[in-house]
Amino acid sequence: MIIVIGWLYVTLLVAANEPSIIAGIISFAFYGLLPCGLIIYFAGSKVRRERRRFKELQATKETPEETP
User: How confident is the model over 34-42, as a mean pLDDT?
Assistant: First the structure.
C-alpha cells in the first residue's frame, strides 16, 4: 500500500507540472489512478475469493441435511 501512496504522490506532482488543468487531470488519471486501481483490484482478488468461499461454506452449514 505504501507503494501505491508513493506512486500517487509522484503522479500528482507530475500532473501539477502540466501546462493546463485538463492535461494535468488526464495525466493523473491515466498515470496514477488507473494503474493504482488495477494494482489494488488484483491485490485484493485473493481476499475476495477466500471471503466468497467462506460465505459458501457458511451457507452449506446453515442448511439442514435431509435424512430419510
Answer: 92
The reply to whether the predicted model has a pTM over 0.70 is no
At 68, list the grid cell. 430419510
Please give the Cα distance from 65 to 46 (Å, whole number): 30
Query: How many C-beta neighbours within 10 Å does residue 15 have?
Result: 19
Name the residue among 6, 59, 57, 67 with its Cα closest to residue 36. Answer: 6
Confidence at residue 67, expressed as pLDDT on a 0 to 100 scale: 57
What would the grid cell of residue 51 be?
471471503
C-alpha cell of 5?
501512496
Q: Which residues make Cβ contacts (< 8 Å) with residue 15, sequence separation at least 6?
A: 24, 25, 27, 28, 31, 32
Q: What is the mean pLDDT of residues 8-25?
A: 95
How far lies 33's CA from each of 2, 37, 40, 43, in Å? 15, 6, 10, 15
